[in-house]
Design brief:
There is one protein chain. The protein folds into two domains: 54-322, Alpha-Beta Barrel (TIM Barrel), CATH 3.20.20; 327-508, Glycoside hydrolase family 3 C-terminal domain (Rossmann fold, 3-Layer(aba) Sandwich), CATH 3.40.50. 32% of the residues lie in helices and 8% in strands. It is built from 18 helices and eleven strands. Strand 3, helix 6 (138-150) and strand 4 (156-157) form a beta-alpha-beta unit. The longest helix is centred in the first third of the chain and has 21 residues, at 2-22. Residues 348-528 form the Glycoside hydrolase family 3 C-terminal domain.
Length: 539
């Protein structure tokens, strides 16, 4: 009798399991309307599963077991959070696959979303292409960035930053495109580059993400973040309603029209943003969570404090998208963007440093000086461009005796800012890194010189201007320094214009085009134009 009962129980269990496997679940059926799938999925979810899906944790504390145990909805790689030193695209894909395995093994099999900051290319990944900003090429840059993000198995990019930076003292000004909302609006063309072109019959003002070579974008960080008092990061923005609507809001409206998938500020909080609802931070965490959720936040970015399907990623490997990371085509695009972004303002330590060229949000959160990723430095670019008979001598900080004794014909002085990020980049002085000023003075008083400023924003330069023969704003050119040499040596002309006002003294700040007391060193839209140098075949 006991054997018969045991056999019956086994048969019953097998039948129940088979019935569960055979159960039709609308939310898994791609043929069902989206609203039907969402309603069906929500009806099946427990409270714990819903809370888990609203949680985004940091990569370094994630594991397949954590994803499964807490039903985590998303993972973020903070600046510099990588699976290993100089990790390959395959290493990134394997890591993402492991996390996804945990998510798909849960009761409902909801895949997690992996998000990463890609503010100027897939900037966390070694050998990726780091791009400068350029209006004309922004859609192509977005498409190239999407390919390089996808090449690492990631489908969600926290870009673009559509802040309108009204004060260059702000440490995130280089993430912004301009002080002028019209330029920032035009830069939202990066969204169809990242996400894909919206089909003609697709509903207007709805999120859209295209094929598997595209990523979901995120308009960030929150309306008004570029207008904080004194340019202090995460400070208050004091502005009237008309100013908010006319300066800071238009790019968000345009982003929605472009079909942007998410807006920071779905709605996803910024990193540790929920903590900062109270002053001091985390003074009443329970209240902060409640207030944030009631305000409409859909996902909370809580990197460390926590108690596309694997088939898609496998397909990416089969398609060998990893080869797109730092591809020749992408580097040529970045080189073109560098050429078109240089601004000639007048007709160092940064000459041989790829880290300084790229700035913050490159490999590490704050960025680093030195050989942090692959690319072409300004020095290498110059050596690649000169005649073989020309001797190029590099000296970080030459003294006057060295300059006189060598009888140089010309000097290129590359100076600027060291890498920084966010609050660490807030500056009251906006000076370039030492020994930049002394190097400019010594060199330009001894030799005919071109000064190339590598910086994320305008810097203090007026007292030294008369000593300089030519001055070029290179901004943060990224990995392709050859684009600078292309223009310096006349293969291409200077075409760039200032997207930001270049101040005389920091006492004038904030100062933006249209202000009644507008008296800049170089005004918004300024830039000298030159033609390419034509060399005859007989020469």
């Amino acid at each position: 009798m006991r054997r018969l009962l045991a056999a019956a129980l086994v048969a019953l269990c097998l039948c129940t399991a088979a019935a569960m496997e055979a159960e039709y679940m609308k939310y898994k059926d791609p043929k069902q309307p989206l609203r039907v799938r969402i309603k069906d999925l929500l009806s099946r979810m427990t409270l714990e599963e819903k809370i888990g899906q609203m949680t985004q944790i940091e990569r370094k504390v994630a594991s397949a077991d954590i994803m499964k145990k807490y039903f985590i909805g998303s993972i973020v790689s903070g600046g510099g959070s990588v699976p290993g030193l100089k990790a390959s695209a395959e290493a990134w894909i394997n890591m993402v696959n492991e996390f996804q395995t945990g998510s798909l093994s849960t009761r409902l099999g909801i895949p997690m979303i992996y998000g990463i900051d890609a503010v100027h290319g897939q900037n966390n990944v070694y050998n990726a292409t780091i791009f400068p900003h350029n209006v004309e090429l922004v859609k192509k840059i977005g498409a190239a960035t999407a390919l390089e993000v996808r090449a690492t198995g990631i489908s969600y990019a926290f870009a673009p930053c559509i802040a309108v930076c009204r004060d260059p003292r702000w440490g995130r000004c280089y993430e912004s495109y301009s002080e002028d909302h019209k330029i920032v609006q035009s830069m939202t063309e990066i969204i169809p580059g990242l996400q894909g072109e919206i089909p003609s019959k697709y509903p207007k003002n709805f999120p859209f993400v295209g094929p598997r070579t595209k990523v979901a974008g995120c308009a960030k960080h929150f309306v008004g973040d570029g207008g904080t008092t004194d340019g202090i990061n995460e400070n208050n923005t004091v502005i009237d309603w008309n100013g908010l609507q006319n300066i800071h809001m238009p790019a968000y409206i345009d982003s929605i029209r472009q079909g942007v998938a998410t807006v920071m500020g779905f709605v996803i909080s910024d990193m540790w943003g929920i903590d900062r609802i109270t002053t001091p931070s985390r003074a009443n965490y329970t209240f902060s969570v409640q207030a944030g959720i009631h305000a409409g936040i859909d996902m909370v970015m809580v990197p460390e404090e926590y108690v596309e399907f694997i088939d898609d990623l496998t397909l990416l490997v089969k398609k060998n998208l990893a080869n797109h990371l730092g591809s020749k085509e992408h580097r040529e695009l970045a080189r073109e963007a560098v050429r078109k972004s240089l601004v000639l303002l007048k007709n160092g330590t940064h000459a041989d440093d790829i880290g300084n060229q790229c700035g913050g949000w490159t490999i590490e959160w704050k960025g680093l000086s030195g050989d942090i990723t692959s690319g072409t430095t300004i020095l290498t670019a110059v050596k690649n461009s000169v005649d073989p008979s020309t001797e190029v001598i590099y000296n970080v900080n030459p003294d006057r005796e060295f300059l006189k004794s060598n009888n140089f014909s010309y000097a290129i002085v590359a100076v600027g800012e060291l890498p920084y990020v966010e609050t660490f980049g807030d500056s009251k002085t906006l000076t370039i890194a030492e020994p930049g000023y002394s190097t400019m003075t010594d060199v330009c008083e001894s030799v005919r010189c071109v000064v190339v400023i590598v910086s994320g924003r305008p810097v203090f330069i007026e007292p030294y201007l008369e000593k300089i023969d030519a001055l070029v704003a290179a901004w943060l050119p990224g990995t392709e320094g050859q684009g600078i040499a292309d223009v310096l040596f006349g293969d291409y002309g200077f075409t760039g214009k200032l997207a930001r006002t270049w101040f005389r003294t920091v006492d004038q700040l904030p100062m933006n085009v249209g202000d009644s007391d507008y008296d800049p060193l170089f005004g918004f839209g300024y830039g000298l134009i030159t033609s390419p140098r034509v060399v005859k075949a007989s020469q």
